[in-house]
Automatic annotation (TrEMBL):
Signal peptide: 1-22
Protein name: Phosphate starvation-inducible protein PsiF
Positions with biased composition (Low complexity): 105-114
Residue ranges of the region described as Disordered: 105-154
Residue stretches of biased makeup (Basic and acidic residues): 127-154
Pfam family, one: PsiF_repeat
Keywords: Signal
Length: 154
């Protein structure tokens, strides 16, 4: 009986503290609320359209770290720049195909090879894939997967 009373008291204490903890969590401002607070402080003294525009710009701005990341060129952008330089002088379908192959090639950290050779090997791999796909007609599931793996290796 004593154990039951102790258990009931412990449960009651637990439930009594639960709302207090939840209230503390609810009081923490969200990131958007923090941003609003900072922007409001910076907009002190502004009125009308000037304040409206400032608040809009301030609230839609990215944090400084995100801005730095956004300004730094991505790997894809770097790859695009390199491929564009290599494609100088090419036009029309030749350029389109070269750019497609170049951009889908290995990342910049991979050993560098001649871009046109990369485009050729990519094309031969694509041709191999087409042939294997045609041969795999009718195969499904694991059988197809195994066949395709062996076909593409050979």
């Amino acid at each position: 009986m004593n154990k039951l009373v102790i258990l009931a008291a412990a449960l009651a204490a637990q439930f009594a503290l639960l709302p207090a903890h939840a209230a503390d969590e609810a009081k923490k401002p969200t990131a958007q609320q923090e941003k609003m607070k900072v922007c409001n402080e910076k907009a002190t003294g502004m009125k009308g359209d000037e304040r409206k525009k400032f608040m809009s710009d301030c609230l839609s701005a990215k944090p400084a770290a995100a801005e730095a990341d956004a300004k730094a060129p991505s790997a894809q952008q770097d790859k695009m720049k390199v491929c564009n330089e290599k494609a100088t002088g090419m036009k029309g379908d030749e350029r389109k195909k070269f750019m497609s192959d170049c951009l889908s090639a290995k990342p910049a950290g991979a050993p560098a090879a001649d871009a046109k050779a990369d485009a050729k090997s990519s094309t031969s791999q694509q041709d191999k894939m087409k042939v294997c796909n045609e041969k795999a007609t009718g195969k499904t599931g694991d059988d197809r997967k195994k066949f395709m793996s062996e076909c593409l290796k050979g």
